[in-house]
Prior knowledge:
The protein has 378 residues and is α/β, with parallel strands linked by helices. 40% of the residues lie in helices and 19% in strands. The longest helix has 19 residues, at 297-315.
Amino acid sequence: MIVLSDDEGIVENSFVVSKDTLFLISLMDGTRSLRDIQTEYMRTYGQLIYLERLEEIVTAMDNNFLLLNENYRSRLARLKMEYEGSPVRKSALAGRSYPENRMDLLMQLDEMFKTAREVKPNGEIRAILAPHIDYARGIEVYRETYGYMKHVEKPLLVIFGTCHRPTEKILSISLKDFETPLDVVPTPRDLSALIRDNDLLRDYIDEWPHRNEHSIELQLPLIQFNTQDDFEILPILTGSMHEYIKGEKSIDDDLLSELVENLRTVLTRYGKPYIIIAGADLAHIGAQFGDPLPLDAMALAASKVKDEEILACIREANARAFFDAVKSESDARRICGLTPIYFQLRFVEGSTAEIVGYKQWTDGRSSVSFAGAVFRNY
Length: 378
């Protein structure tokens, strides 16, 4: 049996189907009638499937919002309207990726960080690169990275995170407050007004991609636990740069520079000191990600060498060299942190990063790598 589920939350229930039913569903692409699908099924399986059975499957899919039709569009519009109307982005991960009870979460975080080494401030911290993998797999790097938040005294955190779903534009800016079991983290109203008044940035306000995305949310409890003072956030999800990787667009495109400069302008006008945080993982290789060859020690070692080339660019805060390093291998290792790291590096040019943690997680068949870095001005 195959379980169809929707991480975006439009489809509330999982839909369990057999492999032959999944084959029927795969044919429902808008170009075939039910009789066409009946014919394809008979050609493939050598058996007749009655139209009544096909109609039952279609009805079940429609009832579960699995058909791209008016029923689905109405539900999506209703969910978007409800989400847009809320001033707070509720936690999507509480009770799933970490405890939803405040005290239970505090106990987990205390356990995570009780063995963290004491770090001493050495220069002004301008930015932090952290993973966005789950806490269980990323604990070592999270621990080494977010210990530095104790020495950050800047009240505004601009957080870039990977959006794992397709987006219309390369940036999706949220102006909502973000809630975790520990507290509500505010997005400042004056800064929101400046973004709405900006001729370019107002077109990049897009709340919906943030609704269930984990890359920014996972950072917040860790920051809340390790930060002494209250803080504000500007959450920005980043889309794909594959058009740039493929050469369909130039990395020297004026739009990227204009986005960075307009963000700098509104942050300067807002006036509060800020740091740039990126929630970004590195390579995704192996069977889970579609690679046909086995993931052996040689493949892991080769991937680590490529990661080291990327980390060398991050150390120098060189956005162009970082992008070129990923492009040189056609992003074959699926660097899902490409866009948030690129924008982070554009903001901190002239600083130097210390790589404070790195790990290749693997289950023997697949692997995800990630790193922690602290950018400073000396």
